[in-house]
Each structure stands twice: as structure tokens, then as C-alpha cells.
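User: I want to check something. If I give you two sequences, will you return the structure for each one separately, not as a complex?

Assistant: Yes, each is folded on its own. Here is the first sequence with its structure:
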Amino acid sequence: MDEANKSIVSEFVLLGLSNSWELEMFLFMIFSLFYVATMVGNSVIVITVIADSHLHSPMYFLLTNLSIIDMSLASFATPKMITDDLTGHKTISFDACITQIFFLHLFTGTEIILLMAMSFDRYIAICKPLRYASIISPRVCVALMVAAWVVGAMHSMSQVIFALTLPFCGPNKVDSFFCDLPVVFQLACVDTYVLGLFMISTSGIIALSCFILLFNSYVIVLVTIKHHSSKGSSKKLSTCTAHFIVVFMFFGPCIFIYMWPLSSFLANKILSVFYTIFTPILNPITYTLRNQEVKTAMRKLKNKFLNSNEATPSHYF
């Protein structure tokens, strides 16, 4: 085999979001707070839904899985970035870089399918309420989640296999705070034009197509709600509008990054922060914590926890 075709790069250097130490310390504090809030908020949602039998419904089953995926998406790279900002050690091995690419596409691919499943759930609940119980059964919910993870895994494997075929024989500085194909493939010792087309076809067009389907679904739901002028309909309209805003904030950066893989590094870094750090904390706030049923369940769980602590006798030695 020609030596030029061999990958001789054993590690990459993550340049992060800034070269300024002061700005990095500021980002360290901000992202640390966001990460802790993401993990705590989503964990509370998972525990609440599991503990309260009134929330054992298809919608909350899907929301619980969304929280689990959000915690995973927030954890694949953010802890390393926080540690790197604190220690100044910003290298990552080749294998770890490929692993980050795998988990990023696994979790984002799964979340895209899950968001579509949640949109389908709301569409049936609002547009075909009498058939909801027969269409969105527990078996269907499980099938939707299995499909989401299978599609996410297949998409992720295609990205990893593609990355492993690339020859890295020189530059090793990744201009981001984690490894992803749009920045990593530009370090390969081959023509990036063809690689860019691969990125657009396998990620960009897929993300854009899914967003268009979601957009059409929400338009139908919003129009249906608009025709029902009641207090409950007004609340549903507000909720669905908030849901669509979060979906747009998740899909928007993904579409931009993967439809234009050779775009500005600065723009890509800023947009990457949205779907890896900001969106995982926005999802529980928008989808769940604004819901009155969840608020009531959380208060009951809190009171139960406090009462159990008060009932436990204290021992003094």
C-alpha cells in the first residue's frame, strides 16, 4: 500500500471555542452550569414519569426517552470540553475522535426520529383524538423507539466507516471543541469536494427532509388547533408553537453545518454549541416542565420525599 494512503495521525488537537484564556474560563463556568442543569433537569423528568402512574402514557414515554437522549447528547463531548478548558490539555486520540463521531451521530440521528415520532403522536392526539388510543398503543411506542435507535445506529455506523477510510497524514488540528465529520474530513489528505458531497447527501439532505416533514406536521396541527377557539385550544397552540421553536433550534444548526460542510469554522462552532449544549436543556423546559401534569407530579414526588425524611427517626451518638 502507498504510504501516502495510510493514516499516520495518532491524535488530534482540539482548538476549542477560543484562544483567549479569560474567555475559556468564562465558557468553562457557563457550560458547566448548563451541563449540570441539563443532567439534573432531565433526570428529574425521568424519575417523575417513572414514579407517577398518571404519567404512564405514550406522550410521556416518548418525553422520557427524549430526556435520556438529551443527557447522552450533552455528555458525549461537553465533559471533556469543560475539563480541557480547565487543564489546557486539548488533545484527543484518533480512536477517541472516531468514538465521538459515532456517539454524536447516534444520538442526533435517534433524536431526529424521536422528534418525528413525538410530532406524529401530537398530530394523532389533536387531529384524530377518537382514534388516538388505537393508533398510539404501547406496542407502537416501543416500536417507534426501537426504530429510532436502529436508524440512529445505522446512520452513525455509515459516518464512522466513512471516517475510517479517510487517510490522515499531516494536519491534526480540529477547529472545534469535539470531533465531527465536517471539521475532521477537511484534515484528510484527499480532495474535500467529493467528501463534501458525501456529507450533504448522508446528513444534510436527511436532516432537511426530516425538518420539512416535521414542519408540515406542525402546520397541520396548528391549523387544526386554530379552528377550535377555546381556552384549551389556546393552550395547545402555545405548547405546539414552543415545541416547533425548539425543533427549529435543533434542526437549523444541523442543516446548516451538514448542507454547507465547507462553511466558516466560526459559524460551525457557534451552531454546534446549540444542538450539543443548549438544546438538551431547552427540551425539558419546553416539552415537559411547562406541562401542568408534570408540575403536579413533581410536587407530589417532592412532598412524598420530604414526608419520608420527616418520618425517618434521627439517631444521635
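And separately, the second sequence with its own structure:
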Amino acid sequence: MSFDNLASSFGIAATGMKAQTARLRVVAENMANANSTSETPGGDPYRRKTVVFASVMDRALGADTVEVKRVGRDLSDFTLRHDPGHPAADENGYVKVPNVNTLVEAMDMREAGRSYDANMNVMQQARGMLSRTIDMLRG
């Protein structure tokens, strides 16, 4: 493996780590707002955000890398909770609650963490190979 290939390995892994970091930020925002309702009667609460990744050719690295294409919104329906005393309750006493499922968010967080760790392992392996190559050249 050449030095260029090792450098490419670092760059590819770094883009993966950056993408998963963005994903973790979105998951954290979703979880933080899992109970955020509107303040006006019948108003919409927080809407869950989603992350869409894209494969992008990085000419400098000579490889496909990953990046966040966009942060979108989950358009699934809100659930209704009967809470007539809530300031956001409609005329029938129902409050729209966010379309955030904390179990789904926890699974997304775990998956993003594992992907981040896998990219970190690639960087550590490439660093080890580079270090051993330098040691052999000193030799």
C-alpha cells in the first residue's frame, strides 16, 4: 500500500466520521424535542428531522466519499393526546405531539455511533501501517 493510498484511507474515513457526527446532532435534536408541543391551540409541534446521505466522488482522494445531502423533515402524521388543560389543546381537548419515537432515535444513535467507530478503526489501522512503514524505512 502506498503513502497516497494511506492518505486516501484517512480522508475517506474522515468524511464518514463527519457525516455520522451530523447524524448524531440531528438525533440529539430530535430526542431533545420529543415532547415539544405548540404553544397555540391546534398548532403543530416539533417535526422530526431526518438525514439523507449522498455518495460523492472526491477527485483529490480518488474515491467515493459520503456527505450529508440534506437534512429533511419526517412528514408522518402527528399523534393526538387528550389533554384539555394544555395551552395547545384544540377545541376538543386534543394536543398534537411530535412525530418523534425515542426508541427509533436511540437505534439511529447507536447505528451512527457504530459507523463512527468503524471509521475511527480504519484511521487507527492506517496510522499503524504508516508507522510500521516508517519504522521499516528507518531501519
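Because they were folded independently, the notes below concern the second chain alone. Residues 10 and 124 are 9 Å apart (CA to CA). The radius of gyration is 22 Å.
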